[in-house]
Write a sequence for this structure.
């Protein structure tokens, strides 16, 4: 039996975010260079995108490259950037077939030109698709994002457009790069690392966290289903007590 059959379609998370980790270790286990693992991670991306759209998720955010990842050896960074261009180019077909619209968050101006143009083109070509939004976090880190948000709000205060007394949580959300998306209800991290690594810190305030030892290149549709089944077993209390949440 598939975990898919255990999913309650009425209680799907609207937004799932994934920290795709473990490509390097996956390759090393096979005696290969780390980039071999990155290449094999592409299939996993395709699988979760298809599975997410088939299930009816509205948003799927994938952490593909962090601000801190720029500090990796130049050869690995270059290989990752090349792979990104190739993948976006090749997988546009998958996006069309599954009616998925591509979006991106992060310090995109920092990306090399071929990626930026490939990305911008794929985003505009898929803008009309309406089954699921696939959001790539590229050159993204949460502290980068929050710092930018504070700067923007501070500039508006200086210009007299915002009164500091009016700053509230909604205003902050509206200035984040995720302003167009709801917060993820479920955050998955692969590879057995139990940390967040500077991903969506504000947005995951009440997300359910799911850690799996699976390395990213081994992650398949079934693994996504399993994570969602686990998520659906949990009681989300948001600070209240069980009886309140259950309406007793
Ligand atoms: C995740 O796999 C991909 C990126 C961060 C770009 P890693 O490259 O971090 O693989 P490990 O964690 O070293 O195994
Ligand atoms: C997090 O993975 C970033 C991405 C998955 C893109 P890392 O491999 O960079 O995280 P750390 O360094 O182990 O925390
Ligand atoms: Mg890693």
């Amino acid at each position: 039996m598939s975990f898919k059959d255990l999913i309650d379609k009425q209680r799907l998370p609207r937004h799932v975010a994934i920290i795709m980790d473990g490509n390097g270790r996956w390759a090393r286990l096979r005696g290969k260079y780390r980039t071999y693992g990155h290449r094999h991670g592409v299939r996993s991306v395709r699988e979760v995108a298809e599975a997410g759209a088939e299930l009816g998720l509205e948003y799927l955010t994938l952490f593909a490259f962090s601000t801190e990842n720029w500090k990796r050896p130049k050869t690995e960074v270059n290989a990752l950037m090349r792979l990104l261009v190739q993948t976006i180019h090749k997988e546009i077909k998958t996006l069309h077939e599954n009616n998925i619209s591509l979006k991106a968050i992060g310090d995109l101006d920092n990306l090399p030109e071929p990626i930026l143009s490939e990305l911008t083109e794929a985003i505009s070509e898929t803008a009309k698709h309406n089954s699921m939004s696939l959001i790539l976090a590229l050159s993204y880190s949460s502290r980068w994002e929050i710092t930018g948000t504070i700067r923007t709000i501070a500039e508006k205060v200086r210009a007299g457009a915002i009164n500091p007394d009016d700053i509230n949580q909604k205003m902050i959300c509206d200035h984040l790069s995720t302003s167009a998306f709801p917060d993820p209800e479920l955050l998955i991290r692969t590879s057995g690392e139990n940390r967040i690594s500077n991903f969506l810190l504000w947005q995951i305030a009440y997300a359910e966290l799911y850690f799996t030892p699976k390395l990213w290149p081994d992650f398949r549709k079934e693994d996504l289903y399993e994570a969602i089944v686990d998520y659906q077993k949990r009681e989300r209390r948001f600070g209240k007590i069980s009886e309140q949440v259950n309406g007793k």
Residues 193 and 211 are 7 Å apart (CA to CA). Residues 20-25, 65, 69, 80, 191, 216 surround IPE (ligand 1) (CB under 6 Å).
